[in-house]
Structure formats: C-alpha cells, structure tokens
Design brief:
Length: 136
C-alpha cells in the first residue's frame, strides 16, 4: 500500500475497504475529502493528510508548496459544505480556513505529523491555509 499512488487509486481503495487500505500512509493518516467542483458542480474526492483537533479535523492546502492553492481548496472556498471519510466513517461537514489566531497551533499540529509542510512554505510566497473540518 505504501507504494500506491496518492490520487484516484488511493481514493478508490480507501472507499472500497473503509480505509483499511489507505488510511495509514507513509507514517501519517489520510482522510478522503469530497468537495463540489466550483465550475463543474461535480463531486471531487481527494486523499489528504489529516489530524483530529478537538471535535474537528485539520487539513493543509499545501499542494507541495505550489504557487497556487489546490483545486480542492478553491472548491471548498466556493462551497464549504463537504464530506469527509475517516476509515469507515463518512459524514457531512462544514469546511473553513483557520483564523490567524487559530492557525499557529493548528499548523504545529499538522507539521508534527508531516514535517514537510514547513519545507513547502519555503517554496511559495502564499500563506498555506490550514482547513478546519467540522461535522455538520
């Protein structure tokens, strides 16, 4: 599983096995985020590293330090009603960007599980958003 692509195949295997395959990935944990395409209106599912944070879950819109936000982040910015799957638990949720006050502690939570997030900040001039996912 660790050699599997982090993309469509990952989503398919994760969904088919309720996360038995795909939740644990390269020393961290992965959830499946489903957003609605802001242009197409189609549902789009993306595997993303996550961490629990109180009653919420955190994601990072890093795109490896690319100069622009990832499409999934643009989609949830346009329509914050999303679905998140963690293992076999699929639920409707509301997504929002962490506030400037919340972000530092949330960023530390995410870099503790994926230290490369700090590296990604050196590759881009944009502030990489931390996304808070709260059950609907």
């Amino acid at each position: 599983m660790s050699e599997m692509l982090f993309g469509k195949e990952h989503v398919q295997r994760y969904v088919e096995t309720d996360g038995a395959e795909g939740h644990d990935w390269q020393g961290t944990t992965v959830a499946i985020l489903t957003t609605t395409g802001r242009k197409s209106g189609e549902k789009r599912s993306t595997p993303l590293i996550y961490q629990p944070y109180g009653d919420a879950y955190l994601l990072v819109a890093s795109q490896g330090g690319a100069p622009d936000h990832p499409l999934w982040y643009k989609n949830l910015s346009a329509d914050p009603e999303v679905e998140l799957q963690i293992r076999g638990d699929r639920f409707k949720a509301h997504a929002r960007t962490a506030t400037p006050k919340e972000r530092p502690d949330m960023w530390r939570t995410m870099t503790a599980t994926w230290p490369d997030y700090d590296v990604y900040t050196t590759k881009t001039s944009r502030e990489i958003p931390v996304v808070v996912i709260e059950r609907a």
